[in-house]
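S2.1 Query sequence (Hydrogenase formation protein HypD)
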Amino acid sequence: MSDLDQTLAAVKARLKAYDGPRMRIMEVCGSHTSAIVKNGIPGLLSPKIELVAGPGCPVCVTPTDYIDRLIALSKEKDTCVVTFGDLLRVPGSSGTLMQAKTAGGRAAMVYSPFDTLALAKAEPETTFVFAAVGFETTAPVYALLLDQILKEQIPNIRFLTAVKTMPPVIDALCAGGADVQGFIAPGHVAVVIGADAFKPLAEKVQLPFGVAGFTGRHLLAAIDGIVRARGRGVVMNFYPEAVAQGGNAKAQALVAKYFEPGDALWRGMGVIPGSGYYLKAAYRRYDAGSRALQHDRPMNAACRCGEVLKGTISPKDCPLFKTACTPLHPQGACMVSAEGNCLSVYNEN
Ligand code: SF4
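Output structure tokens follow.
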């Protein structure tokens, strides 16, 4: 057995035999949620260690007003919404973008934000509005796209942004009394902002954070580290091959060039101060009204995405789970994306 295998075996044995105080650990990254399910991690843990998914799926946290605005834009003359596939199926307050498209609205699905460039060049009389959702991970991509738009002087692309940032939402969860004793910090986000970006928060809330990658080994190491650091406000980097303590300075500079922080509306969670990125005033002519998002009324009033995203209930506690709400007929955003909290639990069973 290699040294690595021996270490992993010891970690597994420790986590299975754990008999200390109850530990509820939140993963705040949708990719972690799906990796945890795929690797069967909960079955490897003591009953005293519970994993709970948080607000880490970008599609899930996008409020209904954002979807409503995409729908309204898709119906405007000489306008086409450009989006990733998931957003087409997310319910707004009264329907989806896909339904609007079927009824005559214009929405184009792309695999890369850069596909918008070719669309805009081919149809200069149409305004293409890119639906820019995501976290710190995707903000540099949107900044690069704007960089290219400016270089090529393309006049007919706009952004409707709903880009959110992780430390403020974790802070808000803790301030709201979240029953959590540690966090698996998002690996992809940490690649950009760095492991150290979570230090002030860890010290403030006096909880351990483990930055993790996306294999079973990464996740088990992070959970083990968090359990062993219980009660201490520390950040441990279990993904050093990808995450530098200070993050990616080039990506940070690119984001800072075009974006500035601002308050943001989260699905089911309200407005969280300083938790969004918006285009700076100098680039506001490329914005399609991102700062005006105000309401968050779910299409189905019984949808409990907000509580699911805060980790206060399991998707199974939602009365619509697997009844009215299924992957084919999602009633809330958490049942749409492959990283969605409800879809992950649906796929588990
Ligand atoms: Fe919303 Fe469906 Fe999840 Fe219930 S199961 S919280 S309706 S997405």
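The chain has a mean pLDDT of 95. The longest helix spans residues 3-17.
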